[in-house]
């Protein structure tokens, strides 16, 4: 079933996202952690920056 909580002010139930802790010994976190050293040495994030509607940068193509 889906998790729900009761709101105190109305006595009604609403859906909620169940709290989940990260399993530090699990495969998903291990895959994430294995990239740390490379991320520390190389830039793997490119910010597209604000959208330019007018001006000299308005015709540039975004990285994303």
From TrEMBL:
Family matches, as Gene3D superfamilies: Phosphofructokinase domain
Keyword Cytoplasm: yes
Keywords: Cytoplasm, Glycolysis
GO cellular component: cytosol
GO BP, one annotated term: photosynthesis
Listed GO MF terms: 6-phosphofructokinase activity; diphosphate-fructose-6-phosphate 1-phosphotransferase activity
Top-level taxonomic group: Eukaryota
Claim: Cytoplasm is one of the keywords in the record: yes
Protein's name according to its UniProt entry: Uncharacterized protein
Organism (species): Vanilla planifolia
């Amino acid at each position: 079933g889906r998790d729900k909580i009761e709101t105190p002010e109305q006595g009604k139930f609403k859906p909620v996202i169940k709290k989940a802790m990260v399993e530090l010994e699990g495969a998903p976190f291990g895959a994430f952690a294995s990239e740390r050293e490379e991320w520390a040495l190389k830039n793997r994030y490119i910010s597209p920056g604000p959208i330019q509607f007018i001006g000299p940068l308005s015709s540039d193509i975004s990285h994303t």
